[in-house]
Prior knowledge:
Blueprint: H1 3-25, H2 29-60, H3 66-85, H4 99-123, H5 126-140, H6 143-163, H7 168-180, H8 184-197, H9 202-215, H10 222-234, H11 239-251, H12 255-266, H13 274-294, E1 306-313, E2 325-332, E3 339-346, E4 352-357, E5 373-381, E6 393-401, E7 409-413, E8 415-416
Helix pairs in contact: 1-4, 2-3, 5-6, 6-7, 7-8, 8-9, 9-10, 10-11, 11-12, 12-13
Amino acid sequence: MSMEFWQVFLMFSLLAIGFMVWPTIFLAKKYRQELRSNARADTNEGVYRDHVVELEQTLVRGEISADDLVGLKRDLEMTMIEENHMGVDMGDKPITSSFKSRIPVLILVFLLPVLTLLLYSVFGAKEDWEIYQLARDRVNVPVEGLEELSNELILALQERVKDDPENAQNWYLLASTAVDQGMFEEAVRAYRQVLVIESNAPAVKAELAQALFLRAGNTITPDVRQHTNEVLAVAPNMPTALGLAGIDAYRSGEYSNAIAHWKKALIQLDPNSDAAQALTGGIARAKVALSETRGELLSGAVAGPSLTLVVSLGKGNTLVQPSDTVFIYARAWQGPPMPLAIQKISASELPITLSLDNSMSMMRGMDLSAFPQVEVIARISSTGSATSQPGDWQVKHGPVIVASQKDPIALVISEQIPEK
């Protein structure tokens, strides 16, 4: 068990022990005095009643007169009142003062934590707590220890779901961890069990479809297609299902549908994520394939998006010569380094306003229409080399969403590539 568990356990055990010990050993003095006073009053009242009965019997026997009885009763009452006000000085000694009288309490104090641990081990969630600790440690573990800890977590989850088969959270954690470890058969089994418990979970069904796809060696099987279509019918924006639908369409030669599915998924992802980069590459390949299918050429009328750039040199820069070459281009954001559109001018032409479009592509299908997000770059080379070198001046801006970028983009060249 973790240190946090023992800290919480110790704190609550001390509180419980305090509630038991305090009233037994440290009972307030005023309550002890009150209890003793009540006990003395009850005793005196009993003695008074006994004496009154004896006096009445004496009157019946004729040994005393009625006036004597009244006087004697008055004397008894005065005596009882005086004795009730008399206190026997017992100090601060507790009512239960002997060691033997405290033995049951001491036994209970020692048994309480032991019984608590026994009950927790039988009825508590110790296994779930340990699984939580493993899952948390797995997030922060170094790469070299990830596989070992993941396998330990999988074994713990497999044992736990045997005892608690209705815990959907444990089944889901087992499935996702198994996918990470390449245990796709186990992942499929776990995802199916989650859907048995919670049938209305499209995100889980999408992940099941992905696990089936991976288990089949990255193949779109009828089972994968069925689950994907069922997810999109109720959750048309589910990125995982859209990705699978795009793969299915691409492999069927339906490149337009593949692009549509992947673009719909892409806008919901972090542009810097691995999934976004994979989709971006897929869209580019689908556009190339679609272009080849339609027999489109780059010559002729220019179609597709364009980007307007305003390029200038940073103030006070006297190191750039008018004859230096300026390369202005766009390339895929977090994608292939090949320029999608490029122009070359002389530094003497700066500042300049120009546009980049599909007519400036270096390869058919690898243009501004192929990637939804790009990075625009302006670089000054004193050698005229198309490859960046130390000493070149440049500026970068991105990501730029090609379809929605309408305003001119200002590029001020002010950063020099340092010497290595």
